[in-house]
Amino acid sequence: MAIRSFLLFLLCFYSSLSPVLSLYEDQVGLMDWHQQYIGKVKQAVFSTQKTGRRRVIVSTEENVIASLDLRHGEIFWRHLFGSNDAIDGIDIGLGKYVITLSSGGSILRSWNLPDGQMVWESFLQGPKHSKSFLLVPTNMKIEKDNAIVVFSNGGLHAVSCIDGEVLWKKDFEAESFEVQKVINPPGSDLIYVVGFAASSQFEMYQINARNGELLKHESATFSSGFLREVSLVSSDTIVALDSTGSILLTISFQNGEISFQQTPISNLYEEFSGPAVIIPSSVPGIFAIKTNAVTIFIRVIGEGKLEVVEKTNHEIAVSDALPISEGQQAFALIQNAGSEIHLAVKLAHDWDTNLLKESIKMDQQRGLVHKVFINNYIRTDRSHGFRVLIVMEDHSLLLLQQGLIVWSREDGLASIIDVTTSELPLERDGVSVAKVEHSLFEWLKGHMLKLKGTLMLASPEDVAAIQSMRLKSSEKSKMTRDHNGFRKLLIVLTRARKLFALHTGDGRIVWSHLLRSLHKSEACLSPIGLNLYQWQVPHHHAMDENPSVLVISRCGPSSDAPGVLSFVDTYTGKELSSVSLSHDVAQVIPLPYTDSTEQRLHLLIDSDKHAHLYPKTSEALNIFKHEFSNIYWYSVEGHNGIIKGHVLKCKCTGDMAKDFCFDTRELWSVVFPSDSEKIIATVTRKLNEVVHTQAKVIADQDVMYKYISKNLLFVATVAPKGSGEVGSVTPEESWLAAYLIDTVTGRILHRVTHHGAQGPVHAVFSENWVVYHYFNLRAHRYEMSVIEIYDQSRADNKDVWKLVLGKHNLTSPISLFSRPEVITKSQSYFFTHSVKAIAVTSTAKGITSKQLLIGTIGDQVLALDKRFLDPRRSVNPTQAEKEEGMIPLTDSLPIIPQSYVTHALRVECLRGILTVPAKLESTTLVFAHGVDLFFTQLAPSRTYDSLTEDFNYALLLITIVALVAAIFVTWRLSERKELQDKWR
Amino acid sequence: MAAISRLFLLLLMSTAPLFSSGSRNGFTINGRVKIPQVGFGPKGFALPGRMSNVKVILNGGQNVTFVRPDGYFSFHNIPSGTHLIEVAAMGYFFSPVRVDFSARNPGKVQAALTENRRGLSELVLEPLREEHYYEVREPFSIMSLLKSPMGLMLGFMLVVAFFMPKLVESMDAEEMRRVQEEMRGQGVPSLSGMSPGGARN
What's the rounded Cα separation, in Å, for the pair A822 and A698? Predict the structure, then answer.
């Protein structure tokens, strides 16, 4: 009976399985979290509406335009422009439209302020590329229409604010004219366009704003030339520097007459040496120059006379001027001083009095203030209050008001460069009894509520309680390691060179650290973060050590700039140490060896092909010497189409001779003909991937052996003509070749050509298969192909007797030097969408079946079972194949909406997908990042090894109780019956 | 030239959403995204401002544009050749559209949905189907509870406890005795033998 009921149990359990992985709407937020960001703010405009919610419109370096709540910093709406559609300017027109100028001044769009709906779009053409300016005058009317003035592509345009129609246009055909400012003095109908022509000519155009008529054109020559940056100090005066950067020029163009005033900087500031630069600002009467580390504020007192008002050694940031009342303009000035920032709001014409002076304690991890935007409000006593929005070095955005940080946004997380994971600390023993009792009571209560929910007895309040209880389960956000390995830290490196640790449970920031070693210094001028590696992952021994990560960065944009290594503790976020390298870093190879403290050995290859070993300890050197001849690596030179294999030779010779430096030798090279093939993608297997079994049992009890080698490289090349955008070539002149190359011997194991195909290619390599996505020009659809590679040399191990008698070659060592007998199988399918990233799920032991995670053009992540990309699929599978679970062949891959792992959310500007195995075999953790972040847990074959979150324990308890009760009742009954029988 | 192209564009906007207007630097693609109005959806979960979340993407991200409230969109400065337009709108599945601009005879434009190869006479993009990202939870029923593993166990037990004795009773006494003797002979413990009360007897 027991067996029978168990079978029944199993049967009904399996019958409840549905083929697709999916989510109920009330499960959103249980396992996943989603965070929205905007990136580093470039420009901010405050909405000055009297009614409605106060908001600020920002444009960012991630090409995002967003409307934020000024009270809490939440996003009302947001739009992400294309990658080549950078935003040049934003403003608010008529109090209800947001105007954006983008694509180098070519596209002007208007958005509805409350809901972010696009109202109109205009395309502005002009004779040439130029700087672009957006001006939204408050009261300029052309035929009852409010006009927007745009200077872009060498032409001045007046555009209607209502429908985006171009009202008039004036081209500036002069070849060398470089516009510097476009000025519309308040209350006038004139527009001044000023700039430089050739190297030493100043040009001024006066234009009638009503019809675009050129009223006046003046030019003047200044013999020693100009630096290109200018500062506007009043509506008819600008300040510029001469080409040596040592003489200030005050250029006035009042009434169309140009006049120069020269003032050597050394007259104003005695210690002046070296060239100065103007800090661009537009505060009337005041401008700032910077020389060496000193910032000097200079006031213009009529007739081009200059006067120094303040000198400071601190890093400063100045806002634009804000008109607060008739004829008065205020601006904000922020000075960074150690752990504090000093905020001062001053009137433009009165430097010495401060409207506001505050010191605010600032988190050191935010770095310096980069930008300031000021806004005012009227207090109840009718005086002016000010709030300022500041952008910090780590790209975060903060609102300051009354000396406090009202809200802050960690927008550095919008530009993630690299991600890795780290374990959390182990749980400490000793939990109090009271806590257990409390939690037991809570647990029971929770499950009673859940039961009520299942039985549809719950009131609306109960339903709300259930939902909040599920979301706020304290279990998932604990700061300790869990049994299933769901709780981890995501260590994230952002473009602002800041490290964040995010908790996988709820996505909160555990710690953040701005890399000190990368701070701008004399030695390292513009450091760039490059990569993250797991440096120390303590497990067996050295348990009391904290894990740490290695951050590799570079001093400057060029690839031969020297590198910097930083080691960061992942529990505390403290920087343990940092090393400035004498060599550059072209390639980093984490070796599969660790020393006694579980520090992983890393080999850094520089551009001179020297290999450097880290950590620099004698122990590491001993381990390394042992494995010296077993280390092979490859390098890809994309520009000239060569893939090379390398091996270590000997210790460095010459003046570089050090213990930890090694010379290398080129072992092989594969040269692709540059006139017909161009490398566009290379992919290898993940280093830490686990494969459960080499054998694959197929339908008719046959076995195939997967060719599993960590040294396989997938290379995709296209015809040089076809490396452009989709549709730029005809199918006849474009092809795509896919290679599988062994990186130890350089042997090409497989090559296939797709005629009429084109990039971009996105590929993923796992176990013995590679899946790649490309464009088919003939069908004009995207295609995905799969290549599986099998080992033939082991294929004859099918005879059971051979296995029993030990006459098999399964235990013989695999050497890459013997020529491998491999066969490949491949198949192609259509896929509807463009793809931004592809990843594959990975689990702890590699038993669970795999799913592909495809980041589509709509910024969603689609989970697609690997079974759909099985090269053995056929149109009419045999009965045996059907039993194996083979899906009949279709020409395109299915897109099932329920299998989007991001469900109804978008990961805007998706850039990467990371999968990490949990300890539980069925589950994998998925982190997708772009401008937004998304994290979830996936079980590609369902959670066969654990109960799901919504398993009803109360129902189980009730069943058990009912069973026990029934046992006693039936026992009583049978006893009574037996008694009656005996009386009979 | 610019004025002419503007006029051209306006003309197109006012009539039907056609494809292109030639200009000095390239073509302009004009089109329209049409999403069925609220009420057609099964649950009516559509939001009023959803047109604002529709993106139109050219050639896998080369250009991205947005739609006006009436669904019109345009791409400017597009070279001749073959292009692919994709629409990203949450909750709807759009087929990518292939658009061909002939370089030899300007003004000749063709468009076709790539999913089903249907040609388009004008560039009006409509979703092929709605996408529902969530499973619909079955309403509670007593049957689903009975079908659950626990329900089945309970049911099976009840059957054994109440109907088996009935079956046994319906057998005739002679046969019953024979079966009981057989069982005793085999030493199979009965329910009463297993329970503590049975041992006491």
Answer: 17
Does residue A429 register a pLDDT over 80?
no
CA atoms within 13 A on the CB side of A371: 17
Of A82, A779, A978, the CB nearest to B192: A978
Grouping H, G, I as helix, E, B as strand and the rest as coil, residue B155 is helix
Cα separation of A578 and A576, whole Å?
7
Minimal-distance CA residue of chain A relative to B75: A123
Which residues in chain B are contacts of A83 at CB distance < 8 A?
61
Give me Rg for the CA atoms of chain A: 34
Residues on chain A touching B49 (C-beta within 8 angstroms): 115-117
Query: Measured at the alpha carbon of residue A559, what is the angle toward residues A557 and A561, in degrees to the nearest 5?
Result: 75
Cα dihedral angle (A128, A134, A139, A142), rounded to 10 degrees?
Answer: 30
Coil, strand or helix at A464: helix
Please, which residues bridge with residue A421 across strands?
A490
Facing B133 at nearest CB: one of A26, A120, A898:
A898
Chains A and B: how many Cβ contacts under 8 Å?
174
Chain B interface test: which of A721, A776, A833 (most B C-beta within 10 Å): A833
Chain B CB contacts of A726 below 8 Å? 59-60, 62, 83-84
Question: Are the CB atoms for A342 and A357 separated by under 8 Å?
Answer: yes
Return the number of other C-beta atoms located less than 10 Å from residue A14's C-beta.
Answer: 8
Rounded CA gap, B190 and B184, in Å? 9
Q: For residue A955, which residues of chain B lie inside 8 Å, CB to CB?
A: 148, 150
The pLDDT assigned to A968 comes to: 92
Q: Burial level of A912, CB count in 10 A (0-12/13-18/19+)?
A: middle
Domains of chain A by residue range: 315-409, 410-428+480-582, 430-477, 586-671, 952-984
- Cβ distance of B66 and A118 shorter than 8 Å: yes
- Kindly state the tokens that stand for A17: 């399985």
Rg (CA), chain B: 36
d(CA A257, CA B38): 62
CB-CB neighbors (< 8 A) of B69 in chain A: 117-119
A527-536 vs A548-555, strand pairing mode: antiparallel
- The DSSP annotation for A609-631 comes to SEEEEES--HHHHHHHHHTGGG-
The residue of chain A nearest to residue B169, with distances taken between CA atoms, is: A977
The pLDDT of B184-194, averaged and rounded, is: 53
Q: Do B86 and A833 touch (CB under 8 A)?
A: yes
Q: What is the pLDDT of residues A353-399, one digit of tens each?
A: 888 888 999 888 888 888 999 988 888 888 888 889 999 988 999 99
Determine, for residues A125 and B2 on separate chains, whether the beta-carbon distance falls below 8 Å. Answer: yes
> Which of A80, A118, A959 lies nearest to residue B150, judging by beta carbons?
A959
DSSP per-residue string spanning A894-957: ---GGGBTTTT---TT--EEEEEE-SSTT-EEEEEESSSEEEEEE-TT--TTS--TT--HHHHH
Q: What is the pLDDT of residues A649-699, one digit of tens each?
A: 887 776 655 778 888 889 999 999 988 889 999 999 988 888 888 888 877
What single-letter DSSP state applies at residue B36?
Answer: P
ipTM greater than 0.90: no
Please report the domains of chain B, with CATH numbers, ordered by start residue: 2-130 (2.60.40.1120), 142-200 (no CATH)
Classify residue A275 as left (phi > 0), alpha (psi -120 to 50) or beta.
Answer: beta
Q: Model's pTM, two decimal places?
A: 0.86
Smallest CA-to-CA distance from A915 within A928, A930, A923, A926 is with A926
Which residue type occupies A983? W
Residue A455 forms contact with B (CB below 8 Å): yes
